[in-house]
Specification:
Blueprint lengths: L6 E3 L8 H6 L10 H18 L5 E5 L3 H10 L7 E6 L2 H12 L3 E6 L8 H6 L6 E5 L1 E2 L4 E2 L3 H6 L4 E5 L18 E3 L13 E5 L1 H4 L13 H8 L13 H17 L1 H18 L6 E2 L10 E5 L6 H12 L1 E5 L8 E5 L7 H15 L1
Parallel strand pairs: 1-13, 3-4, 3-5, 5-8, 8-9
Antiparallel strand pairs: 2-10, 6-7, 9-10, 11-12, 12-14, 13-14
Helix pairs in contact: 2-9, 9-10, 11-12
Bound molecules: pyridoxal-5'-phosphate (PLP).
Length: about 350
């Protein structure tokens, strides 16, 4: 069965840009073919632009966002290092698990789900942590955590930020905000299918690179000789050529539109959802002032059956939205409006469908 017309408004993958789908049909090149290496270099340049960084070590890891998370910890944590992590949803929790497995002594700064983490609490949690880590856009709750103040006041610590649901959709200024290590995913606001995890590492962070990380595949000491740099490229793994064509094309779409315009498009869709959903009985759940435009969370109108309503949306209207996770499963919906999906026509389709379902 081919679902060519699904509107993907869940927290997972968005609809990819048509240019991205087209890129997947390009002929395969060898992973060391000079033309492919040139495309990879161009892709990395485009990533730097979208991330607003000059970091030389900026490239996509050949695996999903969680691999970017894992690479960010295993390459910079030595056993016993103190890592402060903000947790106000699933992905902050995942960071703790990954950091602990790398041997970190984890200091958790918890906040209620649906609320943003006060950056000062992260800064005060330990006098000199090796790393302060936080999720910029918590996909499990629709909350944006503040990054800028952390970058300003982190001292000698490295600032590590999860940008999976923020890159390309909301402002994320890596260099201006003094972020040292960042990772993302392709399937959200970059409008590309899941499968790659862009990562960017500052020169300062590279001074702390672990000599022999516990992961072979994610060892940046080795990968960097393949994916970046001016010298001859050495084989590390067989790059997923078609995925890289797709990301190259997706970044091209974002940059051609203009990064600010892409942010504004996501914001406009979010604003419309935030304004209109309460009129239909769906109350906004995330903390005011910290609501993501690209991932809206709402509580359900009295009497609306979560599973039944989402099944109706999917089967009768072709629209996917996501349910709540953990403590808010069955009570909250997560409505993504990311990448190519972030169009006013999709917002109107969803609002129209919901209007019919709740009437
Ligand atoms: N971090 C955040 C904020 C996410 O939303 C996700 C996935 O949705 C991940 C990490 C993990 O990414 P992936 O599922 O691509 O491995």
């Amino acid at each position: 069965m081919i679902h060519a017309d699904r509107i993907l408004m869940g927290p997972g993958p968005c609809n990819p840009y048509p240019e991205v789908i087209e890129a997947f049909t390009r002929p395969i090149l060898g992973h060391l073919d000079p033309d492919f290496i040139q495309l990879l270099d161009e892709l990395n340049d485009r990533l730097r632009k979208v991330w607003r960084t000059n970091n030389q070590l900026t490239f996509p890891i050949s695996a999903t966002g969680s691999a970017g998370m894992e690479a960010s910890f295993v390459n910079f944590v030595n056993p016993g290092d103190t890592v402060v992590i903000g947790v106000n949803g699933v992905f902050g929790g995942r960071m703790c698990d990954v950091a602990a497995r790398a041997g970190a002594s984890v200091v958790v700064v918890e906040e209620a789900w649906g609320k943003a983490i006060d950056p000062q609490r992260l800064l005060d949690a330990h006098p000199n942590p090796k790393i302060i880590a936080v999720v910029h856009a918590e996909t499990s709750t629709g909350v944006r955590n503040d990054i800028e103040l952390l970058g300003k006041n982190k001292g000698e610590s490295l600032l590590l930020v999860d940008c999976v649901t923020s890159l390309g959709g909301i402002p994320m200024l890596l260099d201006e905000w003094n972020v040292d290590i960042a990772y993302s995913g392709t399937q959200k606001c970059l409008g590309v299918p899941p499968g790659l995890s862009p990562i960017s590492v500052s020169d300062r962070a590279l001074e702390f690179l672990v000599a022999k990380p516990q992961s072979w595949y994610l060892d940046l000491n080795m990968i960097r000789n393949y994916v970046t740099g001016d010298g001859a490229r050495a084989y590390h793994h067989t790059a997923p050529i078609s995925m890289l064509y797709g990301l190259h094309a997706g970044l091209g779409v974002v940059l051609e539109e203009g990064l600010e315009n892409a942010w504004a498009r996501h914001q406009a869709c979010g604003d419309e959802l935030h304004k209109r959903l309460p009129e239909l009985g769906f109350d906004l759940w995330a903390q005011p002032g910290h609501r993501l435009p690209d991932l809206t969370t709402v509580t359900l109108p009295e009497g609306l059956d979560d599973a039944k309503a989402r099944a109706t949306l999917l089967n009768e209207y072709g629209i996917e939205v996501g349910g709540g996770l953990g403590p808010v499963a069955g009570k909250v919906w997560r409505i993504g409006c990311m990448g190519h999906t972030a169009r006013m026509r999709n917002v109107r389709m969803l609002l129209g469908a919901l209007g019919e379902i709740v009437s």
